[in-house]
Automatic annotation (TrEMBL):
GO terms for cellular component: plasma membrane. It comes from Triticum aestivum. The lineage of its organism: Eukaryota, Viridiplantae, Streptophyta, Embryophyta, Tracheophyta. One of its GO terms (molecular function) is electron transfer activity. This is Phytocyanin domain-containing protein. Pfam families: Cu_bind_like. InterPro entries: Cupredoxin, Phytocyanin-like, Phytocyanin_dom.
């Protein structure tokens, strides 16, 4: 194999690796994992506990539009299931397919405002940590989430593919 052919092959392999490789990115989390979605039959404290949220992640609330809604509320409104106090509602969603970004490392609280739903368990507390030890405080009524290492944010598949391509090139060149 001529040196110029090897260089071209190496350049193509490098471009392929760079196209496959992606840095860690924000994740989308279907609330309730899409099994039941946002409804009265899911334990949202357990659901949130089994995930690690970082700034940039997005919660996806899927539900029957006329049966539920999503209110982002203050901690007090979350605890009492009463969003009637002035300033207790931070945002409202009611499309049935709401994508809610989590831009900062802090606690976020969500409830369904339909009568009886929040008291029936339709409330979600999410702690978004900065991704480093000593990040944000855990959300009330929600145990701390697992470490960021437990998430699927790595691009190990692309890295492994790149190593295989480079290894094959090494064999071809030698």
């Amino acid at each position: 194999m001529s040196p110029s052919h090897c260089h071209r092959l190496l350049a193509v392999a490098l471009v392929c690796v760079l196209l496959l490789w992606r840095p860690a990115a924000a994740a989308e989390y279907p609330v309730g994992d899409g099994i039941n979605g946002w409804d009265t039959g899911t334990n949202y404290a357990s659901w949130a506990q089994s995930r690690s949220f970082v700034p940039g992640d997005v919660l996806v609330f899927e539900y029957v539009k006329r049966q539920h809604n999503v209110y982002q509320v203050t901690e007090a409104a979350y605890r009492t299931c009463d969003p009637s106090a002035t300033g207790s509602v931070l945002a409202t969603y009611d499309t049935g397919f709401d994508k809610v970004p989590l831009p900062e490392a802090k606690s976020y609280w969500f409830i369904c405002e339909i009568s009886g739903h929040c008291m029936g368990g339709m409330k979600l507390a999410v702690n978004v940590s900065a991704g480093s030890p000593g990040g944000g405080a855990p959300a009330p009524d929600a145990p701390p989430s697992p470490s960021a290492g437990a998430t699927y944010r790595s691009s190990w598949v692309a890295s492994a593919a790149g190593l295989v391509v480079l290894g094959a090139l090494h064999v071809l060149v030698n």
